[in-house]
Amino acid sequence: MPDAKASLRVRWLAMLALCTLAAGCSLLQADRQMRRLDNSMYFTGIVQTENEARGPIVVVLYEVDTTPTPRPVFLDVVPRSRGVYHLAGAPARYRILAFEDIDGDMTRQPGEPGVDYEGTALGIDAVNDPPTASSGLDHIRIPSGAPAAGLPVFPPETYAALVQRRRQEFGSAASISEERFSPPLIREGMFQPFRFLEEGRSGLFMLEPYDPQRVPVILVHGIGGSPRDWEHVIEKLDRTRFQPWVFYYPSGFSIGLSAMMLNNAVDELQFRHGFPTSIVVAHSMGGLVARGALNIILREGREPPVHHVITISTPWLGQESARWADVGPTRVPASWLDMAPGSQYLSELTVVRRPPDIRYTLFFGYGGRSSFASGNNDGVVSMRSMLPPELQSRANFIFGFDEDHSSILASDAMIDKLQMRMKVELGHWSESR
Questions:
Q1: Model pTM score
Q2: Biggest alpha carbon distance in the chain?
Q3: Mean pLDDT, rounded, of the chain
Q4: 255-273 vs 285-299: helix axis angle to the nearest 10?
Q5: N or C terminus: fewer CB in 10 A for the chain?
Q6: E-assigned strands of 35-138?
């Protein structure tokens, strides 16, 4: 057991490594945010209609101890007769309203079947272990008959605000150069994730209007990153075949919660636009987020709307320095704790098998050197973590580049290989339809 001085030293080494990975550091001033994150409340479960749904199921998390009326804080949509809902909020006392949205206006109208439910709050770790049909966890059943008396009534403007925020977060237009992707706001997402979320900065954004003739390419940045990390990739993207979508999330949240956000965003946009497939390209920790989102889809029994996943410099076995992140009194981002080797998140990440019809390409860099990563590394992540034998055996293609952890995203060789693999796999997918 290390003494106090040794504990403090390894603590600061872990913090320094995190700052290196995130390109900025303000851990001490963010301690209150981290503690709030530890106490955040998460609600998940199965929701279904008694008969075939005549519209999407809308699930609303509302705070009950507010005056003069209860206050809705989060809205999820299940675009089918049965599915899994995901809701999250700051510490408070909540209930859940679920209803069959027959007219599709995202507002509960008189006569639309619904149910009021006292959800069971779970830890954020529950994101990694979603409910099953046999678990009975928070199973909400919406009757097909007349709604029960006493269901909460929220004014239309309340629903409108939640729906508007959802539309802003899922599929709204964005530009790589805009302010929300600037370094100060990136750091806010890392060290003050609740503020980042409450200000409506996160989401899955389109850089141009949706085109049903082109395949979405979903770009997922790493810890302390933003869509600007993909600038060189986007510049060279073949826009005749592909359309770029960028996922922006507060990377200080637990990786599981970020995966839930990505899952919700993709599910919403597929419901809205009906795109048949997509390609996911993820850098660093973004690969862990993307795999977590895929796991949620598979565990829910849905068919993933993706045929090709490409990860770049992803720390599949974690980051050695994150092992010491919980030593000492100051909190660090939950995502950093999830990246400790052997963490619950990493241990469960590859338990769910990737379907054989989803192809996987693994990219890595070997051009860096760092004392924070053991053995050969890319300056941040060790080769051992980027290339575990289990992942290598499952990958359809593996490519290495003489680049470090950041420069690989601007490498012409990497981008050319990326484009080639995307076009080849798109051809395979098109032929198999």
A1: 0.84
A2: 66
A3: 83
A4: 60
A5: N
A6: 41-49, 57-63, 71-78, 82-89, 94-100, 114-117
